[in-house]
Design goal:
This protein has about 400 residues and is of the alpha/beta class. It folds into 3 domains: about 110 residues, Alpha-Beta Plaits (2-Layer Sandwich); about 150 residues, 3-Layer(aba) Sandwich (Oxidized Rhodanese, domain 1); about 90 residues, no CATH class. It is built from 12 helices and 16 strands. It has a 5-stranded mixed β-sheet. A 4-stranded parallel β-sheet has the order 6-12-11-7. A 3-stranded antiparallel β-sheet has the order 8-13-14, covered by helices on one side. Strand 13 and strand 14 form a beta hairpin.
Length: about 400
């Protein structure tokens, strides 16, 4: 088969309608494996043809270092899919994480991409032993070590932990993995100083974090730490476990030898907790990278609406196409701002589609640079200022008059 045909170019609306009409239950699952592979392009084409025939949808990254897959497929084809994976030595017996909540609409099409890495971590892998990872922990052991006073660290991006996290965990503010690992390393250095009673001698570029009600100074330093002992056991967690593989190896290379990681991540933790009747120490929802955006782990609502501050864990994208920023937004604000992040985006979103397209021409999407709203207070201030200008001038986009004089403006 021609490799150029091994992709789906249909419009999302058509794909969504096709999925609605499919009429058979689907299972969403994820898996990854670090394994050395050759001829990755050829493997990509073979997997696409093989999995498309099984009705697989999803997003899959392949690299010479392994595979990272999030997929949905007809439940009736699970055994055939398992057999197809096991028939390839590099994927044989790879563990699956089954989605906690599944409406069968997690993915619209199959995308398999060849990448330099299966996770964009920004780390120089040749600078440390990526195979020297932390101890893999099941849910019961993770809970027990938490109760014994271990230091729990969330290795996800800031927008992921905005709607759910392990109680008392350190939550980085960074919106990239590289930023998070550097922030965590700086926090750990400060933790060591405090335990040694040294205090903070230097506070260059200081940020302040809250972990378990305690303020921890985050000092941005780059010096390598050797054989660090004055720190409690470190427990890492992420969505499915893959980011903790690199994070634990990185921390061990920098001297933090007592590192554990939640095996299977939050997804498998939720499964184990339910199966074993354990108390979930994870609160709220788990952010997922598919059409669902989130799956509920517990009924706790730990987030707040970024527009009004009400308790909320509904995460969504701004519906203005050139914005598309992720934010936590309550139903009331969704109605008020037409599913947009601000009055400015709302005004564009309310235009006729032809006017929207004309306005968007030549504009880049904001979320290609920053994926999510990082500072809710800054957003609220922006909203207040934009509402005042809108009341004063009747528009926040005077340039629209040059695009289409007949475009209707709505508040």
């Amino acid at each position: 088969m021609d490799p150029n045909r091994l992709r789906n170019l249909l419009h999302p609306d058509l794909l969504r309608a096709r999925l609605e009409q499919e009429g058979r239950p689907r299972t969403t699952l994820s898996f990854y494996r670090y394994v050395r592979m050759g001829e990755v392009e050829d493997l990509r084409h073979a997997l696409y043809a093989e999995w498309e025939a099984l009705g697989v949808l999803g997003r899959v990254y392949l690299a010479t270092e392994g595979i990272n897959a999030q997929v949905s497929l007809p439940t009736e084809n699970l055994d055939r899919f398992r057999s197809a994976l096991d028939a390839r030595p590099e994927f044989s017996d790879v563990p699956w994480k089954i989605a906690v909540e599944d409406d069968g609409k997690s993915f619209l099409k199959l995308i398999i991409k060849v990448k330099k890495k299966i996770v964009a971590d920004g780390l120089a892998d040749d600078a440390f032993d990526v195979t020297n990872v932390g101890t893999h922990l099941d849910a019961a052991t993770f809970n027990r070590k938490m109760e014994a006073g271990a230091l729990v660290i969330d290795m996800r991006n800031n927008y992921e932990c905005a709607i759910g996290y392990f109680e008392g965990a350190y939550l980085p503010k960074a919106d990239t993995f590289r930023g998070a690992i550097e922030e965590v390393e700086a926090m750990l250095k400060e933790e060591v100083r405090e335990r040694r009673g040294e205090g903070v001698k230097e506070r260059r570029g200081e940020d302040v974090k809250e972990r378990g009600g305690k303020e921890v100074a985050v000092v941005k330093e780059k010096k390598e730490v050797k054989e660090v002992r004055d720190v409690p056991e470190i427990l890492l967690y992420c969505t499915g476990g893959i980011r903790c593989e690199k994070a634990s190896a990185y921390l061990k290379h920098h001297g933090y030898t007592n590192v554990g990681q939640l095996h299977g991540g939050i997804i498998d933790y939720a499964r184990q907790v339910k199966a074993q009747g354990l108390k979930s120490k994870y609160l709220g929802q788990n952010f997922v990278f598919d059409e669902r955006l989130a799956e509920r782990i517990t009924e706790d609502v730990v987030g707040t609406c970024m527009q009004c501050g009400a308790a909320c864990d509904r995460i969504t994208n701004c519906h203005e196409a050139t914005c598309n920023m992720l934010l936590v937004q309550c139903e009331a604000c969704a109605a008020k701002y037409a599913d947009c992040c601000s009055p400015s985006c709302r005004e564009i979103h309310h235009l006729p589609i032809e006017a929207q397209r004309a306005w968007r021409k030549g504009r880049s999407t904001r979320s290609t640079k920053t994926k999510a709203i990082n500072d809710p207070e800054v957003l609220r201030q922006r909203i207040r200022e934009e509402e005042e200008l809108l009341a004063l001038n009747g528009t926040l986009h005077p340039e629209l008059t040059y695009i289409t004089p007949t475009a209707a403006h709505h508040d």
